[in-house]
Amino acid sequence: MKKEAWVSVLLVGMVVLMSLAVRGGGKFKESVTSIAVSKLTDPNLLMKNQIPILDLSGESKNVFSKIYEEDEDTDTEIKLEIDNSYITPAIPKGNAKILIYHTHITEAYAQTDTYKYEESGSYRTNQQDKSVAKVGKELADSLQNNHGVSVVHDTTNFEPPKLGTAYTRSLSMLEKRIKNDGEYDIYIDIHRDAFDYMEGQTVTVDGNPVAKIMVVVGTGEGNNGTPILPRPDYKSNYAYAKKITDNINSQVKGLAKNVRVNKSRYNQHISKRAILIEMGYTGNNMDEVLRSVPYLASAVASTIQK
Fold it and tell me: Rounded to whole angstroms, how far apart are CA atoms 125 and 286?
C-alpha cells in the first residue's frame, strides 16, 4: 500500500479511537488505552485490533465483535490482591439458596441454524430461549437436578426503558427479593461478553468447542473518582470469584479466564458472594456456551458443603 494510503488509514483510525474515548470507552476503552501511543503508527494494529471493518488480513471481518454497551460496566481492569481472611466459609447445603438473574437479559450470541433469533439490537434478542436467559435456566437446572441446590432464576427484563440504567432496576428486584424471601447465599448475574479479546475464546473438550467463562467483580470506586455508595465488600466477592475460577480450571484447564476487577459496583454490595459472570462472548454460539454450563455449576456447587 502506498504511503498516502497508509496515512489515510491512520487518520481514520485515530479519529475512531478519539471518538471512542469521548464516549467513555466502555469495553472499547480497555482495548484502546492498552495500546502505547507509539503503536498508533502501526497500520496493521489499527486495522486488525481497533477497526475490524478494515481488517485486510483475511481473518474474520465481524465488525460487531467489539460492541460498546452504555451501562455501568464501562471501565478498565484493575489489579487486586487479597489474603485468606477474605475467604468466606462454605455454605451448609441444607440452607443454601442461589439467585440467578440477568441485568442484560437480551444479550445473545452468534446465530446458528439451531439458534436463530429476531434481533432487538446487535447480538440482542427478546426471545429468552435464544439469549443469556437460556444459559441462566440451564445453570439453574444443573444446580438443582445434578447438585441438589435450591435456585431461583429471575427472568425479568431490566433493560427498558434505557439500557444504561438497567442496574438500577435489577437492584430494585434484588432488594424486593431480599425483603420478601430473606438473604440468598449466592447472587449470580449472568451476562454475555461483548468484547473480542483477540485470543482463543473456546477450549476443546472431547472434540467439541466450549466457550470460556469469566467472573467479574466490582470495587465500587466509580469511574469518575466518586465512589458508588454503599460500596461492595469487593475483596470477599473477589475471593469467592477466584474460588469459582480455580475450580473451573481444575476441571478443564484454561476454561475460565482470570477474574476481572473493575471500578463499577454491579450491585455486588448486597452480599459477600455476589458475582457477575460473562458466559462466552458475541463470537461464540449458544451450543458452545451451553457446554460450559456444567463446569460452572460444578464449581458453584463446590462452594457448598456436601
Answer: 13
